[in-house]
């Protein structure tokens, strides 16, 4: 009725008789300048079956009194208050929600909300809680202890970006039917703990971003998680900067296709045991451990990397990692290794002769900033498909010998600063029949003129 009435700033509906109205969907949606809405007792909702998007995008509405609303017959409340970004308080204690089958984005982006009373919500029939409280940035607590989630299929973005949320009790949640938990607790920056021991994850396929940026959580015990059907774990623990302890010993990862940035910036983790991980379907490990700068022990010995195409920045900024075993890594399908070991400042020895580079096109910055690296075994590498080698060994200032005799650089187009700031005593072995472009690039680089190049003229 008032849909997109963008110029209205006040509505007094004291004489409205809505006793026979059955549909209030979109009623005030888009009244973006509406600041005051008065609804009298004559505003009856007894027969209403839909309140879909009823107040959506009422950006300036700062007060709503809905205690007289009768919602026994309502079946749809999706997006009902979405983007009511000026509301600070909302009392829905009288709402009856027995017929509601989903609460999709019901309070999404109610960013000023500090008080929300939904204590009597009946959620028994709901199959989706997608984005229900997403971007409720000022809510410090939500009472959902009585939520019945028995029929829930979708919990993605449930509490995403609830940046002031300090605690949430989900211990009674029944998640046995849930297929996606993607982004569920993402950006809950003040949440210090989660009790997830009763979570049933048997049907879950997507756990991407599940705990991303939960910066205050120090410990996560997920040994009860059944992940046999999970396909996506990318960004799952990203930016959990205070996480010191994590147990994933029972994780089944055989269906997972992406672990991109899974532990990125978990900067307080010192040890990570992923020995139970078996990853035959995995295609991307890009930035998986990037920024784990306190990590000294990493067990990935059982990883299956046969299908992986992207390993870029995999260990970037793992600056405390002293050693790493990658003897089981299969790399024949990997196309991108850019920045793979960049700024691994504590690594002194790496043996990568088992790497097969037949598909690799980008080795840029691969060992850049590995300042303590004194031994690097890559003499068997066939680099005939590589297009980029810029800054590949830049600032490897402790490296004194490199056997690149098998390097074929005929396809390579970028050698910029490949050996910039390297040890002036660095001795390189290269085959001028296959790597003349690289040799010329080195010789033409001013700051590496003292590097000795042993040009092998092999038959």
What descriptors fit this protein?
single chain; 459 residues; little secondary structure; three-stranded parallel sheet; two-stranded parallel ribbon; 3% helix
Percent in helix: under 10%
Q: How many distinct beta strands?
A: 13
Overall average pLDDT:
93
Query: Low-confidence stretches at least 5 residues in length (pLDDT < 50)?
Result: 446-450
**What would you call the quaternary organization?**
single chain
What structural category arises from helix and sheet content? Answer: little secondary structure
What sort of overall outline do the alpha carbons produce when their principal axes are compared? elongated
Distance between the termini: 85 Å
Question: Taking strands numbered 1, 2, ... along the chain, how are they ordered across the largest sheet?
Answer: 11-12-13
Topology as a string of helices (H) and strands (E): EEEEEEEEEEEEHE
Beta-strand content estimate = 5-15%
Q: Characterize the largest beta sheet: strand count, sense, and whether it forms a barrel.
A: 3 strands, parallel
**Separate helix tally:** 1
Radius of gyration: 29 Å
Note down, in words, how this protein is organized.
This protein has 459 residues and is low in regular secondary structure. The chain has a domain at 337-459. It is 3% helix and 10% strand. It contains one helix and 13 strands. The protein has one helix at 432-443, and strands spanning 10-13, 36-39, 89-91, 115-117, 219-221, 245-247, 271-273, 297-299, 349-351, 375-377, 401-404, 427-431, 452-456. The strands form six sheets. Strands 11-12-13 form a three-stranded parallel beta sheet. The protein has a two-stranded parallel ribbon with strand order 1-2. The longest helix is centred in the C-terminal third of the chain and has 12 residues, at 432-443. The termini are far apart.
């Amino acid at each position: 009725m008032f849909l997109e009435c963008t110029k209205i700033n006040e509505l007094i509906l004291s004489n409205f008789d809505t006793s026979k109205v059955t549909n209030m969907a979109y009623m005030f949606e888009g009244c973006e300048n509406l600041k005051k809405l008065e609804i009298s007792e004559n505003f009856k909702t007894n027969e209403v079956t839909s309140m879909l998007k009823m107040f959506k995008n009422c950006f300036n509405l700062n007060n709503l009194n809905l205690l007289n609303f009768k919602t026994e017959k309502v079946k749809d409340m999706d997006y009902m208050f979405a983007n009511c970004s000026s509301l600070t308080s909302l009392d829905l204690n009288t709402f009856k929600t027995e017929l509601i089958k989903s609460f999709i984005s019901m309070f999404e982006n109610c960013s000023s909300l500090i008080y929300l009373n939904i204590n009597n919500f009946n959620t028994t029939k709901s199959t989706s809680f997608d984005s229900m409280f997403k971007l409720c940035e000022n809510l410090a607590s939500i009472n959902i202890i009585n939520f019945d989630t028995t029929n829930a299929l979708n919990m993605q973005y449930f509490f995403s970006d609830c940046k002031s949320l300090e605690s949430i009790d989900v211990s009674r949640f029944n998640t046995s039917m849930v297929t996606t938990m993607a982004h569920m607790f993402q950006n809950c920056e003040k949440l210090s703990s989660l009790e997830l021991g009763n979570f049933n994850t048997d049907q879950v396929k997507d756990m991407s971003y599940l705990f991303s940026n939960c910066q205050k959580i120090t410990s996560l015990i997920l040994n009860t998680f059944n992940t046999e059907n999970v396909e996506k774990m990318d960004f799952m623990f990203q930016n959990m900067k205070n996480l010191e302890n994590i147990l994933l010993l029972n994780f089944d990862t055989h269906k997972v296709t992406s672990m991109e940035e899974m532990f990125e910036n978990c900067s307080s983790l010192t040890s990570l045991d992923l020995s139970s991980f078996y990853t035959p379907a995995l295609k991307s490990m890009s930035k998986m451990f990037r920024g784990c700068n306190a990590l000294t022990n990493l067990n990935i010995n059982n990883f299956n990397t046969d299908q992986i195409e992207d390993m870029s920045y995999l260990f970037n900024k793992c600056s405390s990692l002293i050693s790493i075993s990658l003897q089981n890594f299969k790399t024949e399908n990997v196309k991108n290794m850019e920045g793979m070991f960049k700024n691994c400042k504590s690594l002194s020895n790496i043996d990568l002769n088992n790497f097969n580079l037949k598909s690799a096109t980008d080795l840029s910055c691969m060992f850049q900033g590995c300042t303590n690296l004194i031994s690097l075994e890559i003499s068997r590498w066939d680099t005939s498909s590589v297009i980029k080698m810029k800054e590949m060994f830049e600032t490897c200032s402790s490296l004194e010998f490199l056997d690149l005799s098998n390097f074929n650089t005929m396809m390579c187009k970028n050698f910029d600063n490949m050996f910039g700031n390297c040890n002036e005593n660095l001795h390189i072995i290269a085959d001028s029949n296959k790597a003349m472009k690289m040799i010329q690039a080195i010789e033409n680089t001013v700051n590496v003129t003292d590097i000795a190049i042993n040009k092998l003229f092999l038959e």
